[in-house]
């Protein structure tokens, strides 16, 4: 006799939840998944990364553009942004309540994160049929994107937005195809941005020296570790409750209760962490330093744009990438890296490794409602 598998039998509680879901669908529509904390992690991640939904009304399109903007890379997955919808414009504001005072005391990475979101927004806006004019945060403390209706320009970079991820696993060491490397080397840059690409093993070992130094300094720093632990999500329940932060499985680590995760992270020996990252860098096909000739808000936003453009380009070529920013986050080591890779006056802003690997679980995002003013 066929028996229904036990996981398919709905409990009374599940049934009530299901009825609640149906009720919300009937009245409200798409907010339902985002507000449904009992959903599984993968369902939530799929929902966050669902394809762009075209709509004929400008206000609905603006919300979709904001959802795509918020899929961008951002430091510790703090999602340090707030968006304002204006007539024919979207503003991206910093959310200083989500800053990282220990690892990012000058809000440099916060503004880079806003630049990543800006690049996604511009790429999605072009594909949805708008040309754009950007006002950078020189005087004001926010970015403004003016939208002008035009013909739609879909692109492989637009398709890559929901697929891009920071892939923290070991890679397979295979060199990146030379035509793809050429494409990266000729990536259109923003004013004052500089790119340095290292693919030979000697150059990677040079970069590794500074990654090691960064790790040894950060993992001996209690304030750095406390901040990291605050943003770590040690299990699905924590990740789904906050829809932000660093979920352990996205870094290839197992789940567990917070009390245990906290002890393990706080007792990581600096050399242990350096060894793990050395293996990861050596498994990669190359590394890239993104630098800028100035060190102010606009330069940081433009750095974020260059990074996200590069990440979307790599994603479209099935190349994976991950940050190793430790040497840039530690004062003193940043300047050593700057001269070791021959950057002249340009200051390193981001360090990225790249290569081939399988995808990892995706990180979550807060719903548009939570990131609007
Ligand atoms: C400015 C900036 C700095 C980052 N630094 C690191 C880092 O040092 N190490 C790391 O593993 N990820 C780093 N990340 C990646 C974020 O943790 C990642 O983008 C975020 O968790 C969201 O995940 P996703 O990119 O896979 O969507 C950084 C991202 C940005 C924008």
Provide structural commentary:
The protein has 373 residues and is an alpha+beta fold. It has 3 domains: 10-39; 56-164 and 363-371, NADH Oxidase, CATH 3.40.109.10; 178-355, NADH Oxidase. The chain contains 16 helices and 10 strands. It has a 4-stranded antiparallel β-sheet with strand order 1-2-4-3, covered by helices on one side. Strands 5-8-10-9 form a 4-stranded antiparallel β-sheet, sandwiched between helices. The longest helix is centred in the first third of the chain and has 21 residues, at 108-128. It starts with 11 loop residues before the first helix and ends with a helix. It binds flavin mononucleotide (FMN). Residues 73-77, 109, 112-113, 116, 165-166, 168, 246, 322-323, 325, 363 line the site of flavin mononucleotide (FMN).
Compact description:
The protein is an alpha+beta fold. Helices cover 45% and strands 15% of the residues.
Descriptive key words:
NADH Oxidase, alpha+beta, four-stranded antiparallel sheet, 10 strands, 15% strand, 3 domains, disordered N terminus, binds flavin mononucleotide
């Amino acid at each position: 006799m066929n028996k229904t598998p036990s996981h398919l039998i709905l409990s009374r509680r599940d049934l009530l939840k299901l009825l609640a879901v149906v009720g919300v669908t009937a009245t409200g529509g798409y907010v339902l998944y985002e507000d449904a904390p009992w959903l599984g992690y993968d369902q939530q991640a799929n929902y966050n990364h669902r394809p762009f939904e075209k709509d004929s009304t400008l206000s609905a399109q603006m919300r979709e553009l904001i959802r795509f903007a918020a899929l961008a890379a951002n430091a510790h997955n703090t999602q340090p942004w707030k968006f304002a919808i204006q007539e024919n414009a979207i503003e991206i504001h910093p959310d200083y309540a989500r800053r990282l005072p220990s690892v990012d005391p000058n809000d440099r990475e916060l503004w880079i994160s806003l630049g990543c979101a800006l690049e996604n927004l511009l790429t999605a806006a072009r594909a949805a049929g708008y040309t754009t004019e950007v006002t950078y945060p020189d005087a004001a403390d926010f970015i403004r994107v003016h939208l002008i209706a035009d013909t739609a320009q879909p692109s492989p970079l637009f398709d890559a937005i929901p697929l891009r991820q920071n892939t923290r696993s070991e890679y397979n060491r295979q060199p990146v195809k030379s035509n793809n490397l050429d494409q990266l080397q000729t990536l259109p840059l923003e004013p004052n941005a500089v790119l340095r690409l290292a693919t030979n093993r000697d150059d990677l070992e040079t970069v590794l020296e500074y990654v090691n130094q960064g790790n040894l300094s950060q993992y001996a720093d209690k304030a750095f570790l406390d901040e990291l632990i605050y943003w770590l999500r040690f299990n699905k329940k924590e990740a789904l409750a906050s829809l932000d932060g660093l979920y352990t499985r996205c870094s290839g680590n197992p789940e567990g209760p917070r009390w245990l995760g906290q002890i393990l992270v706080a007792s990581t020996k600096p050399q242990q962490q350096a060894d793990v990252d050395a293996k990861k860098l050596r498994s990669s096909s190359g590394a890239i330093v993104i630098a800028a000739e100035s060190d102010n808000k606009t330069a940081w936003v433009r750095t974020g744009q260059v990074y996200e453009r590069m990440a979307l380009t790599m994603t479209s070529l099935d190349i994976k990438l991950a940050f190793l920013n430790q040497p840039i986050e530690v004062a003193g080591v940043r300047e050593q890296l700057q001269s070791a890779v021959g950057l002249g006056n340009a200051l390193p802003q981001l360090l990225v490794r790249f290569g081939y690997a399988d995808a990892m679980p995706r990180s979550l995002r807060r719903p548009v409602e939570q990131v609007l003013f």
